[in-house]
Amino acid sequence: MYPKSMQESLKNVEQTRPERLKLAKSGKKIFPMMSADERNKILNKYHPDFQADARCKIKIGPNKGDELTTEVTDILETYSRINPKDFDLSNPDYETDVLVVGAGSAGFAAALLAQENNVEVTLVTKLRIGDSNSMMAQGGIQAAVRPDDSPTLHYLDAIGGGHFENKPKLVRALTFEAPGSINWLKDLGVMFDRNSDGTMVTKSGGGTSRLRMHSARDYTGAAICATLRDEVLNRPDGIKILEHQPVIELIKDKNGKVAGAVLYHLENREYYTVKAKAVIIATGGFGRLHIRNFETTNHYGATADGIVISYRAGAKLMYMDSVQYHPTGAIFPPQILGFLCTEKLRALGAQPVNSAGKLFVNPLEPRDVEASALIKECADKRGIETSYDLAGIWLDTPLINMINGDGTTEENVPAMVRQFNRFDVDMINEPILVYPTLHYQNGGVEINERCEANIPGLYIAGEAAGGIHGRNRLMGNSQLDLIVFGKRAGKFAADYAKGVKLSNLSLDHIYDYEKEVEKIGIDRKKIAPMILPDYIPDHVKAKQLTTEYHGTLI
Amino acid sequence: MAEKQKMVKIHILGEPFYVPDGLTIINALEYAGFQLTHGIGCREGFCGACGTIFRKKGDYKLQAGLACQTIVSEGMYLAQIPFVPAEKPIYDITKLPPDITSFKELYPVIFRCVACNTCTKSCPQDLEVMDYVQALIKGDVEKTADLSFDCIRCGLCALRCPAEIVQYNAAILARRLCGRYLLKESRDLTNRVKEIAEGDYDTELDELVKMDEDKLKKKYYEREIKLFD
User: Fold this and answer.
1) How confident is the model at residue A389 (pLDDT cuts 50, 70, 90)?
2) Taking CB atoms and an 8 Å cutoff, what residues of chain A touch B21?
3) What pLDDT does B2 receive?
């Protein structure tokens, strides 16, 4: 159902398809991989991170003087939502051993392991439990399980994909514990795709040297996250759940240990305090900051709240100058702008081709390189124009069934087929139009292999953590990191909570931080965390005159 | 988007609003000035938070769909569903048999199914919901797991069910039992987990952790790539 303006280009794709299909079926390389030099060149020129104003020095806090992604600096140089003097910290509303913030797969894994290590757990989340980017992951989870694969090869792929900037000990934990993580999930009841003989179905992904991607159709994240959610719900005696209550500040004790958090109830607008011996931040990433105005694949709640509150409390960040753009976000029709078109499509044989129907890059370069190649192609005017000032690249999805047999697409990526069908695009028989989309926060709060930040009592897991993937994560290593480091955070935080003694609680760090913010001349109205993005149009906002009214009406 | 947008009239909680044609229900609500904290989630059709019911102008049918995946049309009456109250029994997955006895105990409500097919008709994923409930009644856990695999737990089936079954929660249990007990064992996985536990990869990995960058780079760029069975 493409408009007339795209039909000519569509014909080009059909014309070149037989040749491209022949090559794909021959088993030969369909397009050469870039050398290290070529990769650097294309990244420097076309990757959004390397554009002139993409980064900006942060003037305050633990990373003072570092260049961070401009939108990140912007959201860190802000005031708090609260005034510490309004809180009586000697009488907290809740008390717990381990407070887990965020209810995606990392938060769930952390909560389960903390509970298994015999401490009281409270799990708090901004929206419903399970509302997370974890739930939306499609393609897969990496683990070196095949006999021709090994954790060692997985290590090499991950660290090479991350341009050798990953923290080695974190990569070791990630790859070493991958097969065990799959096994743990299987025992909890996750239905990974299997061949008829029981072996795991494994696919390739960008930057992998072996077939290592395990999947649950293209609902991999949902299968994992919903299973973990169900298990968390089965342990009400050990895990207390508070929904619709985002954490908006951390609480420390007089000795500087992290000792709890302040919650904001989205319904009744009350603020609550939680005293906790340890806090695990598993709040995910920053897609909804729409960095460089990119559309995003991310969940409504992905606003980097955990990064903001951790930074304010003194946590050091790592690689927060690096953004992952997924090479293939939907760009047509406009209702699904930015939606994820899983890398599994390319792993199954779909090829990115330009308006002339020409393949211009190996479909499985690491994500940053692949995305840059697509951006370059459009910048060089070889993209396909839409009627709304955006250009895209064809992802030739009909090849999937042609290469692997009829029904492959329907069976392997039912979510994608369903998604495009809803908007009148038949991806089995016609290509889809794609462009890079804001997908993942490569960096985060720097952790060690025990998931500890540089402040006692603060643990980080999942996308909010920095160092595991360097400045570029490979497909399937995020789903894996949620489990490996979620479990680690839960275990190590529980161990710590059993021994720690807290002194009086304090929010003084907010005063200290705000003094710095004031010194650099930031407007008082700049407040974070953001909690939720605001998509109300300007002409409506202009009439919403009482949004800050303090009376009987909101 | 085009400058002169065609507008459509929709009704949100009974009140009329004019919004651009072609918007999804979620986008239309935001366009109308609503900041949503319930009935909204991933915005991409994966999380099931935005189940919604609506009537179209001149249509007797009460329809169900996902607000992030449904485009508004002229005269549409919308009602957001902020929350689906549904029973979820507590269980220990390690102690349940993967057969009908677990469902008799935990979800006896499934046996109330009158095969009216309302659940199937209300499923925004187009799943054969009634078929999987019927399969479960017959004790076919695997079939239930397979048919319900793409469920996103929006709860619309349970809301519309005249027999008050909680299809989607029963289906999660079916999938978990299937994943844990009924799928064939992967020997490769069992072997690899055992090798790791026995320390087979410790030395190799420790060497990589310590390796200087030049050597590591060489190893990376020279590694053999094997992506075919």
Assistant:
1) confident
2) none
3) 44
Is A415 part of the contact surface with chain B (CB cutoff 8 Å)?
Answer: yes
Transcribe B81-142 into DSSP letters: ------------GGG--SSHHHHHHH-GGGGG-----HHHHH-TT---HHHHHHHHHTT-HH
pLDDT at residue B1, as a whole number: 43
The count of CB pairs under 8 A between chains A and B is 226
The number of domains in chain B is 3
Query: B87 in a domain, yes or no?
Result: no
Q: Do B216 and A164 touch (CB under 8 A)?
A: yes
The mean pLDDT value for A301-326 works out to 97
Active-site entry in A17, A55, A312, A326: A326
Residue B209 to residue A334, Cβ atoms within 8 A? no
Strands of A317-318's sheet in order across: A317-318, A444-446, A465-466
Structural domain contains residue B15: yes
Question: Is B174 found in the same domain as B102?
Answer: yes
Could you tell me the pLDDT band of residue A553, with boundaries at 50, 70 and 90? low
Residue B228 has pLDDT above 80, yes or no: no
Mind listing the pLDDT tens digit for each residue in A273-291? 999 999 999 999 999 999 9
Q: Tokens standing for B204?
A: 């190799």
Domain region containing B115: 93-182
The 3 state secondary structure assigned to A17-62 is: HHHHHHHHHHCCCCCCCCCHHHHHHHHHHHCHHHCCCCEEECCCCC
A4-30+326-438 sits in which CATH class? alpha beta
Confidence of residue A439 (pLDDT cuts 50, 70, 90): very high
- Above 60 in pLDDT, residue A554? no
Same domain, B112 and B165: yes
- The pLDDT score that the predictor gives to residue A27 is 84
* CATH architecture, domain A76-322+442-506: 3-Layer(bba) Sandwich (3.50)
**8 Å CB contact of A198 and B186:** yes
Q: Are residues B144 and B194 in the same domain?
A: no
Contacts of A487 (CB under 8 A, 6+ apart): A109, A110, A112, A113, A181, A184
- Considering the domain boundaries, does residue B22 fall inside one? yes
Specify if B227 maps to a domain: no
The confidence band for A66, taking pLDDT boundaries of 50, 70 and 90, is very high
Q: Where are the domains of chain A?
A: 4-30+326-438, 76-322+442-506
Is some CB atom of chain B closer than 8 A to the CB atom of A297? yes
* pLDDT per residue as tens digits for the range A449-479: 999 999 999 999 999 999 999 999 999 999 9
Helix (H) or strand (E) holding A85: none
Quick check: B186 and A199 CB within 8 A? yes
Asked if A176's CB is within 8 angstroms of B33's CB, the reply is: no
Residue A372 to residue A436: CA distance in whole angstroms: 8
A168 touches B: beta carbon within 8 Å? yes
Other CB atoms within a 10 A radius of the CB of residue A11 amount to: 11
Report yes or no: A326 and A437 within 8 Å, Cβ to Cβ.
Answer: yes
CB contact under 8 A, B46 and A534: no
Closest CB to A176: pick one of B93, B187, B201. B201
- Residue from A47, A346, A367, A473 carrying the catalytic annotation: A346
Closest listed residue to residue A358, CA positions, set A10, A7, A5, A12: A12
Chain A stretch 329-368, residues whose beta carbon is closer than 8 A to a beta carbon of chain B: 334-336, 339-340
Give yes or no: A346 in active site.
Answer: yes
Residues of B in contact with A128 (CB under 8 A): 41, 49
Give the whole-angstrom CA distance, residue B87 versus residue B90. 10
* Cα–Cα distance measured from residue A372 to residue A366, given in angstroms and rounded to the nearest whole number: 10
pLDDT per residue as tens digits for the range B49-64:
999 999 998 899 999 9
3-state secondary structure of A134: helix
Task: Calculate how close chain A gets to B65, using CA atoms only, in Å.
Answer: 11
Tell me the pLDDT tens digit for each residue of B141-150. Answer: 999 999 999 9
